[in-house]
Amino acid sequence: MVVILTFFFVHWYLSAFSQSFFLHRYMAHGMFKMSLFWERFFYLLTFVSQGSSFLHPKSYAQLHLAHHMHSDTEEDPHSPLFFRDVFSMMWQTKTIYMEYQRGIRKAPDSFVANMPVWGFVDRLGNSILVRLLFVAAYTAVYVVFAPSVWFYLLLLIQIVIGPFHGAFINWCGHKYGYVTHDTGDNSKNTFPLDLLFMGETFQNNHHQYPNRANFATRWFECDMLYPLIWLLDKVSVIQLKPKAV
Ligand SMILES: [Zn+2]
Ligand SMILES: [Zn+2]
């Protein structure tokens, strides 16, 4: 049981880190800069940690820009206001995400012009074979170490971990919680102690200050990722932009 829970939580937090740090705060919002070496390092980490549910960084960033531009209107790719359940919301999100990936939709050139792309990793991450190999690797760990069949529910989460995090954040972050800032949309701060999603459920704070690297704005709120971002800036792995602090 210890092995399975360790495997699950290490995978959970690595994936949540990649999504919040690299896909969201770096790719979509450009809150900080980094050298090509570190960019490739975190690109690769995103591929490895999301594994079978790898999200293509450039498509993720464009989808997310559309969310900010049209938050909680009919143009929003994933507003819970327009869906009866989280599954139908995520189905539309997937459809629009795929349209960005195929080039049917495109964010303005000014947004995508200098966006980092690593074609080799994108192709690897999007390959059905590679996705299935990740599923096989996760399953092998469960076959060897799972103490009962109930633990396979955790395996199902691990197989779709990227969209699973996204579904939770997009649904809850615009539906449940409290409001600190009048943003004109339905964004909420869901958890004062956002220990599972690395700050991502502070949607109301984030929509008010979309370029600010710290998603917590009140004394009792904890954006778990921000101290790490602060540290990476201090040791020169990244350079926080003035607008982000
Ligand atoms: Zn939002
Ligand atoms: Zn954002």
Biggest sheet, in brief?
2 strands, antiparallel
| Succession of helices and strands | HEHHHHHHHHEHEHE
* Mean pLDDT reading: 96
Number of strands: 4
Q: What count of helical segments does DSSP give?
A: 11
The assigned structural class equals mainly alpha
Low-confidence stretches: none
How widely separated are the two ends?
A: 42 Å
Relative helix content = 55-70%
Strand order of the largest sheet: 1-4
**Compute the gyration radius: what is it?**
18 Å
Bound molecules: zinc ion
Molecular shape: globular
Indicate how many domains the architecture comprises: 1
Query: Hey, roughly how much beta strand do the residues contain?
Result: under 5%
Task: Describe the fold and architecture.
It is a single chain. The protein has 245 residues and is mostly helical. It has one domain (2-180). The chain has helices at 2-28, 36-50, 57-69, 86-102, 109-112, 119-126, 128-145, 152-159, 161-172, 203-208, 226-234; strands spanning 32-34, 193-194, 222-223, 238-240. The strands form two sheets. It has a two-stranded antiparallel ribbon. Strands 2-3 form a two-stranded parallel sheet. Helix 3 (57-69) crosses helix 4 (86-102) and helix 7 packs antiparallel against helix 8. The protein starts with a helix and ends in a 5-residue tail after the last strand.
Give a brief outline of the structure.
The protein is built from 11 helices and 4 strands. The chain is mainly α. The mean pLDDT is 96.
